[in-house]
Amino acid sequence: DATGKRVPKGTPNAKKEQTKSPKWYGVFNSKGKKLSFPLHRDKRVAEKMLKDLEAAQYKSDLGQISPFAKHLNRPISDHLEMYILFLEEKDRGERYLKDCKRLITTTLIHFKLLKTENNTWQSKITSCKTLLDLISIDVEDFDLYLARMKLSGRTKNTYRGAISSFLTWLVSKRRLETNPFLLVTKSDESRKTFVRRSESEPNIIKLLQSAKDRPLAKFEEKCMKRKTALGGKINSEAKKRLELKGYGRALVYKMAVLTGLRAAELHKLKVHFLETETDQPKLFAPKTITKNKKDAVFHLRKEFAEELASWVKQTGRKPTDPLFSVPRNYLRNFKKDLLFAGIPYLDTQGRKFDFHALRKTCNVLMGKAKISPALRQKHMRHSDIRLTLETYDDADAYDQTI
């Protein structure tokens, strides 16, 4: 129509427009029915694919039905549900299963093979195309899809790996003959979209103080602006609650810097993982919460252990309760705390200081304290020493004067 929207034939004031398809399509007749399939950009490859389709259809007409036919005509969501169940039986972690489903579903939504209520991977599926539609996606189109992503090479390869692993499983279960996504081009992982930086000890102290003070300071500022009946003042109970909220957030940051624990791991810590009433206080992180699925033990400073014990007592937490309250929007709060402390999120070199950069800071502070690389690797729980000495190190943070 006049707005450029595609409409049915015969719509008033609409005109017919023809555009050249980037692909060749194959058309043939079967039992008096006209069938059309998208093939390939290259004509010779498309002709071969058409011959294979005709041969398969001819066998089907003769009663020699392909063993994959019943699976190819099933919705992709049915296969995906069985794949996720298979991964659960393999004892994959909750985070792995969630990421796997997210990557595959996001890809299916992009290629319009799946529709959801809110057009997001988390919402309910409303319609889904078949497995035959999935394998009809051109490999070059998938390459282009990954190339246009403003993501790192490693993340792009994660998308590729997720969909390819799904199809490899389908092949292993005799639901599919081959996996066409094995031909998708791998991205260069050496190219990074952003680099994290570490922060100095004085700035970390400023950040901790900012996290502690900001909840109360912002609330008092809001009260003054609204000119409440209290005359901009705040009652003692609300003040105590806000101070405790800031104190808890500062402890989360401090724990991240001293132990190198990730946000997801901090979220799963329980009170009974702590041993504070011993000569050598410890924090135990079981394999059920760690990323590498291995038990970890962290020796804590006595003064920090006392802070944690005080926090547990003040909040009235039970042994099975979470040690901290780490919200979903922790990064948003972290950025606000940085701003309140006067620490830039991006420095002049374009390097980020996000929550995960606290883990990098942990490694750098150990390096500045001249702790051996082997001990640093063990504390950071890295499988490769290059992660400790390259990815999670920051040469600019060290004194380079001669």
Based on the model shown, name its key terms:
402 residues; mainly alpha; two-stranded antiparallel ribbon; 15 helices; 7 strands
What does this structure look like?
- The chain has a three-stranded antiparallel β-sheet, with no helix packed on it.
- α8 packs antiparallel against α9, α8 crosses α12 and α9 packs across α13.
- The longest helix has 26 residues.
- It contains 15 helices and seven strands.
- It is elongated, with a radius of gyration of 28 Å.
- Helix content is 49%, strand content 7%.
- The protein has 402 residues and is mostly helical.
- The mean pLDDT is 87.
How are the elements arranged and paired?
Blueprint: E1 25-30, E2 33-38, H1 43-61, H2 69-72, H3 76-89, H4 94-110, E3 114-116, E4 125-128, H5 131-135, H6 139-147, H7 153-172, H8 201-226, H9 236-259, H10 263-267, E5 274-275, E6 282-285, E7 296-299, H11 302-315, H12 330-341, H13 357-368, H14 373-380, H15 385-391
Antiparallel strand pairs: 1-2, 3-4, 5-6, 6-7
Helix pairs in contact: 4-7, 8-9, 8-12, 9-11, 9-13, 14-15
User: Could you say which structural class the secondary elements and strand pairing correspond to?
Assistant: mainly alpha
Total strand count, please? Answer: 7
> Helical amount among residues, as a percent range?
40-55%
Radius of gyration: 28 Å
Mean pLDDT across all amino acids: 87
Give the distance, in angstroms, between the N- and C-terminal Cα atoms: 73 Å
Counting H and I runs of at least 4 residues, what is the number of helices? Answer: 15
Uncertain residue ranges: none
Shape: elongated
Biggest β-sheet description: 3 strands, antiparallel
Strand content of the residues, in percent? Answer: 5-15%
